[in-house]
Amino acid sequence: MQVSSLLRLGLGAVAVCLVAACGEPADNFPGQPVTHRRQAFRDIMKSFEPMGVMLRQDGYQAERFAELAEKYNTAFETPWAYFGGPDTRYPPSTARAEIWTDAAQFEQRKQAFLAASRTFVEAARARDDTRVAQAYLAVHEQCEQCHKTFKDK
Ligand code: HEC
């Protein structure tokens, strides 16, 4: 199957707003966990989105893609340290309370995402276009699955 058609099956862009919203309340919480984890997810997008564009447009360039994957590799583990206790859910966070009331499932989703991300980075390093496309799709699926349960729109 062609990379582009494979991706078209399941791949819309991850729904996001990258614009720093105006008029948001100041983050006065010690350590600013909401500010940091939102920034960490935006940093993930900075490499993840252009890789998706490349694959969807059938413009896979192994070297450029591998560079972006290295960037992704430095970003995908960052948000998780900023999920503190349930008191770190405050405006403008879109985190759902289930992260803390169903912590075991959140942990499972996180681990599945981390595993998929590692497999993806390895495929990009191996410069194997078919494996790369499938692994990208698998990571994308993890983003969506977690957001569906644990993130408000
Ligand atoms: C294990 C769960 C989980 C996974 C996996 C996950 N996210 Fe998220 N994501 C969240 C939660 C929860 C929030 C809300 C954080 C907040 O507002 O406090 C979020 C927020 C975001 C945001 C919004 C940041 C902002 O500015 O408010 C973006 C963008 C995002 N995620 C992208 C991604 C992408 C891309 C992936 C996959 C590569 C991904 N996420 C994987 C749980 C997850």
Describe this structure in words.
The protein is mainly α and 153 residues long. The chain has a single domain (32-150), classed as Cytochrome c/b562 (Four Helix Bundle (Hemerythrin (Met), subunit A), Up-down Bundle). The protein is built from six helices and no strands. It has helices at 3-10, 33-56, 62-75, 98-101, 103-126, 129-150. α2 runs antiparallel to α3 (62-75) and α5 packs antiparallel against α6 (129-150). The radius of gyration is 16 Å and the shape is elongated. The model has no long low-confidence stretch (mean pLDDT 90). Heme C is lined by residues 14, 16, 34, 37-38, 41-42, 44-45, 48, 93-95, 99, 109-110, 113, 139, 142-143, 146-147, 150-151. Heme C binds at residues 14, 16, 34, 37-38, 41-42, 44-45, 48, 93-95, 99, 109-110, 113, 139, 142-143, 146-147, 150-151.
Bound small molecules, deduplicated: heme C
Return the average pLDDT rounded to an integer: 90
β-strand amount:
under 5%
Number of strands: 0
Helix content: 55-70%
CATH superfamily placement: Cytochrome c/b562
Task: Provide tags for this entry.
Four Helix Bundle (Hemerythrin (Met), subunit A); single chain; 153 residues; 63% helix; mainly alpha; binds heme C
Brief overview, please?
This protein has 153 residues and is mainly α. Helices cover 63% and strands 0% of the residues. It has a single domain, classed as Cytochrome c/b562 (Four Helix Bundle (Hemerythrin (Met), subunit A), Up-down Bundle).
Topology of this protein?
Layout: H1 3-10, H2 33-56, H3 62-75, H4 98-101, H5 103-126, H6 129-150
Helix pairs in contact: 1-6, 2-3, 3-5, 5-6
The protein binds heme C.
